[in-house]
Specification:
mainly beta, Porin, disordered N terminus
Length: 489
């Protein structure tokens, strides 16, 4: 099942005569707009889900026209103004040029900055009509890599949107990471289908779900890996049955690739969990059955309540990479977090652990989350985790604060305290040595000058890491300074 861009392009051209309004996503070129969306949802001004990025404009745009922000909610007012400004200009043909450079490549990324090369040039040209929305993204990295990340062509028919795309996604409630999908790795090109709005369906039983959103994507990973051209299926459904409670259900599966079955019927076998023999034989005893592919699945829960008259969130994000009886998810990892608003900005504290003893509650063997016996490059794309920026076998506590100013300026501060690859076995791509104790403090400030913007970033890392073979303990510190310059035509 070779995935080609021309497949969906041809389909879209056939559908052009239907003539519906297009529904592009919020924040594909400015991820901080998603923070504004979450702020208005937390304060109760928007009736929408918010734990999936990116989200469609359609239902949000209609609600913005009727919002009246209370004088006491200055944070919500700033978010409302920023979204309204973007709504006014989004139908214009626009081009953005972005140049970023740093003194060294960054190991760890954030929601608003997935670039981890020493330097990158990016140009995006976007258009939107009544039927289509599209963007051509051209990227050149300092190491010579070229690509079309952040490109898409989307077409909407009624409440469904179809696209061929290669865009960043982030699935989960947390600010610091997600176990199943972040922008830590380059986006995976492929075909997508999503709903084009997030409002409740009052005409059917689905109204009891409240606002809901569905997204599915079928892509293909790079050729330079243990199993070249592995396919990646991922899907997400989140809904808000109560005003202060949101649920997200997520599932992804690696399958196919060179040396494995890649047909449409094989894809159906993967998503229906057809039983196959673990040794590849045609028939075997039931206890030797397994399911094709490498699956990850889990759930997010977010509860919002008032603390000192300010919205505060408690959330849980859990993903498992195995299952008992094909559907009872096991081998889970967990993230717990709190977030809220203070000092005209948003704060959060989160704790996560991607170390899990797979296959047995009494086992002490880790090295299995994001790993697989057949797909030995793991749940990674170009050697970067598709999920957590800290990869597997990592315990992390993150504290952060961000503020959006009325003039459009932005401030971000974050502290990470982490134990990376803490079992000191089978090292991951981000760890120094065999295991590492890391303290990382980072800050970034973005300032706008009309069409220009300048973002300055600084991060300081202090590491203690072990090299087991030589019995060496290394204490290391380094600082990374980055500058990003953008211009919007």
């Amino acid at each position: 099942m070779k995935i080609r861009s021309t497949t969906l392009c041809s389909l879209v051209l056939l559908l052009i005569t239907s003539g519906s309004a297009a529904s592009p996503w919020i924040g594909t070129n400015n991820a901080s707009l998603h923070d504004d969306l979450k702020t208005l949802v937390d304060y109760g001004y928007l009736d929408s889900v918010s734990m999936t990025y990116p989200m469609p404009w359609q239902s949000i745009a209609g609600q913005l026209k009727d919002i009246q922000i209370k004088n006491a909610h200055s944070i919500a007012q700033v978010a409302f103004n920023r979204l309204n400004r973007q709504l006014r200009i989004r139908r214009n043909l626009s081009t953005q040029i972005r140049i970023k450079g740093s003194n060294e490549a960054q190991r760890f990324t954030s929601f608003k900055d997935g670039i981890h090369k020493r330097g990158q040039f990016r140009a995006n040209t976007r258009f939107e009509t009544d039927s289509f929305a599209g963007q051509l993204g051209i990227n050149v990295d300092s190491d010579g890599e070229e690509g079309f990340d952040q490109s898409y062509l989307a077409y909407r028919i009624r409440q469904w949107q179809f696209s061929v795309d290669s865009i960043d996604r982030w699935w989960g409630p947390a600010e610091s990471t997600s176990f199943i999908l972040t922008n830590n790795a380059r986006p995976v090109p492929g075909l997508s289908v999503t709903t084009s709005n997030t409002t409740a369906d009052e005409a059917s039983w689905l109204k009891y779900l409240g606002p809901w959103y569905f997204s599915a994507h079928l892509g293909e990973l790079e050729s330079d890996r243990h199993v070249p051209n592995t396919k990646l299926w991922k899907t997400r459904f989140n809904f808000r049955p109560f005003e202060n409670f949101e649920v997200g259900l997520t599932w992804s599966a690696m399958w196919g690739g060179e040396g494995f079955a890649n047909g449409f019927s094989d894809f159906i076998d993967v998503i229906t969990f057809r039983a196959v023999c673990a040794d590849g034989s045609e028939s075997c005893d039931e206890e030797l059955h397994t399911k094709p592919g490498n699956h990850l699945a889990g759930v997010d829960l977010k509860y919002t309540f008032d603390l000192f008259k300010t919205p505060t969130n408690f959330y849980v994000h859990t993903i498992g990479e195995d299952a008992k009886d094909f559907y009872k998810i096991t081998d889970r990892v967990y993230l717990f977090g709190f977030s809220g608003y203070a000092f005209d900005g948003k704060w959060y504290i989160e704790n996560s652990d991607t170390g899990v003893s797979c296959g047995s509650a009494t086992s002490t063997t880790l090295n299995c989350f994001y790993e697989h016996g057949d797909y030995q490059s793991g749940y990674r794309h170009y050697s970067r985790s598709i999920g957590s920026t800290f990869d597997s076998d990592a315990k992390v506590t993150s504290l952060g604060y961000s503020r959006h100013f009325s003039e459009g300026h932005e401030l971000e501060i974050r502290l990470d305290i982490a134990e990376l690859n803490y079992d000191a076995e089978s090292t991951t791509p981000v760890v120094k040595g065999d295991r590492e104790d890391l303290t990382r403090l980072s800050a970034a400030y973005k300032h706008n000058f009309n069409e220009w913007s300048v973002k300055l970033g600084l991060s300081y890392e202090n590491s203690e890491y072990e090299i087991t073979n030589s019995n060496t303990l290394v204490d290391d510190s380094n600082s990374i300074v980055s500058v990003e310059l953008s211009y919007d035509f």
